[in-house]
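Our consortium's second objective concerns turning raw sequence data into structural hypotheses that experimental partners can test. To show how far this objective has progressed, the report includes one record in full. It was chosen at random from the queue rather than selected for favorable results. The single chain below, 171 residues long, was entered without modification.
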Amino acid sequence: MRTFVPAAGLQSFSPLVIAAVFAAFPAIARASLLSPELEDMMAEFISWMVLLVAPITAIIVFWLVHILPEKIAEKKKHPQAKAIQVLCLLSLAFGGLLWPLAWLWAYSKPVIYKLAYGTDVVEPEHESPPIPPRAAALKPAVASEMRLLEEKIAELEAQIAQAEDFRGGRS
């Protein structure tokens, strides 16, 4: 089997030919594929993103991470959820130094609270307590009784107002 070996003169000739071709047909050298105007526009857009959007996004993400312990405490019905919320706000003011404490506190079981109150969860204040099934059956009767009581209270308030007017007129 024979291999092709180019002549010695031909090997030194090819780089010279390539250099001559590039010298004969010069091209514009650019570092980018974009036009200069488009590069300027893109640089301005990126600079505005860095100056405005990135800090706002960083602040929002920082805030969302710092309220996580509060959300966890509310979800787990932690009895000290309000105190954890305050610690989260303080953590925002102190640059996140207190955040690990709030995180640990949100996941901890309140032992002393359970000893004092017999439970380690608290129903949130904004939710109404569930109505027992028996009270739900009595609801129409309770509503009519409530109406009667409200009427009686209104009568008593009117009598009190008359008595105060009578005393005010005598003095």
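The partners drew two points from this record. The CA atoms of residues 34 and 40 lie 10 Å apart. The chain has two domains: 36-126, 136-170. Both points have been shared with the crystallography group to help prioritize constructs.
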